[in-house]
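REQUEST ID: PR-0412
SUBMITTED BY: lab tech R.K.
PRIORITY: routine
TASK: structure prediction, single protein chain
INPUT:
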Amino acid sequence: MFRLNPFRKKKKGLKNEKSSGFNILRNDQVIQNQLEIKIGDVIIRLLRNNTSQPRNELTAIIPRAEIRRKFYNNGHFTAEEEIILNSITLVDAPSHGSEKNQGF
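STATUS: complete
OUTPUT:
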């Protein structure tokens, strides 16, 4: 039902370079962040491509999902199904600075 692949590299490149405390990837490398969730027949996909390492959180929040299905046999109602999901949260927090760098 859930598929999370936060760091799928699309292209191979050279090693990271350090510059001013940030991880900088050379131009020939792309990082792909992807969040995907399938609920019933609905697919929600959030895709992000970066040439530098993302420094912020990637979050998908679905507060409530309701799926209702009715089943019929020869035109007559036979059964009903109800699925209720609450507070679905997907988070990709790829990099955090050290506490020393954030002033804590």
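NOTES: The first strand starts at residue 2 and ends at 9.
REVIEWED BY: pending
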